[in-house]
Amino acid sequence: MNMRGAGSVFINRHFHALTHRNYRYLWLGQCVSLVGTWMQNIGQSWLVLTITGSPLKLGFVAACQFLPILLFSLFAGIVVDKFPKKNILLVTQTVSMILAFTLATLVLTDSVKYGYIIVLAILLGLNNTLDMPTRQAFNIEIVGKEDLMNAIALNSTTFNMARIVGPSIGAVMMAWLGAGWCFLLNGFSFVAVLYGLFQIQAAPYVRKNTSRDGIMKEIKDGIVYIARDPLLAQTVLLVTVIGTLAFNFNILIPVFTKNVLHLGETTYGTLMSCLGVGSFAGALTMSFRSKQGPSVKISMIASLVVAVCLILNGLSTSVWVCGALLALTGFFNIMFATNSNSNLQMHAKEEYRARVMSVYSLVFAGSTPIGSLFAGYVADRFGANGAFVGCGVMTGILCLIIIWKYRNAAGKKELNPI
């Protein structure tokens, strides 16, 4: 067998979603864009910490960025159902590009202030409120249900490869040229994903049988549907805990680097890349096993391992130990997120899918304001070590309670998926 043939067999076996033309365009665009996104993420965190010197103020920026998702995600799910998702993504990605260029201009002209960063964070949060559930629900339109989990795993692989590459490039860029160049390159990176979206040709799913009782009735119906389904309910609750307490790395890692390790940008970028390496490995693992479908047991086990890793990280004062633990945390975080996302999309009825994914966006990203403020406050009072331990202990206790409550019902539901 020649190399080309062997490559085709490997892709068909492990990355079958890439055989769909539309998905290839979206995936390749994201490969470029997400590197820029991670450059901006670490650049913004370091910029705020440099300007203010306050972990709490850094946490407040993250809270502002995700507060709109907390407030408006449920409404976004209704909008996503009623308009072609490709058109929505063209708008949201263009807005993200404009915001990145705006922040770059402010920094490069020495005009940036903490208040300006807050405003831009809120605007980006409003934009992401619509972008996130749209991207989640768009996958099934371009790959179908059979390859959905593989597409989600590939998205996670791309996201976490960018988490490795982006912080590494961003750290060097900040050390040599300043954070402004991270934001500028991120702005240009959106050209790739916009080009990919323009090339996609897919028949859009637009829900026609919408309720005449108004948006609030539709939102209520979606929440009741989730609450009555044990597997969906357990998954959403676990995602709420993990999203709130276990994804505050943009707050804790820069504070840990600066105040515990007493090191600079390069170490910060390296630790973020360690998290990305583990996450990338987790995403690949889920991609290789995607044919087996999602399992509620993976979400349960991964959530508890993440809690233990956070506690151990809080007890660490070594760069090497911290890097290894962050890699392990990233591995199980992505296994949890990919599996949970797939569970929700594959078990939800088509007419409820966008609303279910809007709830997923709400609890996964919308809970970040609470988690960011909590992590920032604890880090401000007790240091980054105390914040890691506190988040880990609370994550473990809450996940155990949820697993115990749904120990029988969710398992039975998984055996008979929709």
UniProtKB/TrEMBL annotation:
Keywords of this entry: Cell membrane, Membrane, Transmembrane, Transmembrane helix, Transport
Transmembrane segments: 23-40, 60-80, 87-108, 175-198, 236-256, 268-288, 295-312, 318-338, 359-379, 385-404
SUPFAM superfamilies in UniProt: MFS general substrate transporter
Chloroplast recorded as keyword: no
CDD domains per the UniProt record, alphabetical: MFS_MefA_like (cd06173)
Localization per record: Cell membrane
Domain Major facilitator superfamily (MFS) profile span(s) in chain numbering: 1-410
Name of one Pfam family that matches: MFS_3
Keyword Transmembrane helix among record annotations: yes
Membrane topology: Multi-pass membrane protein
Name this protein carries in UniProt: MFS transporter
Organism of provenance: Paenibacillus planticolens
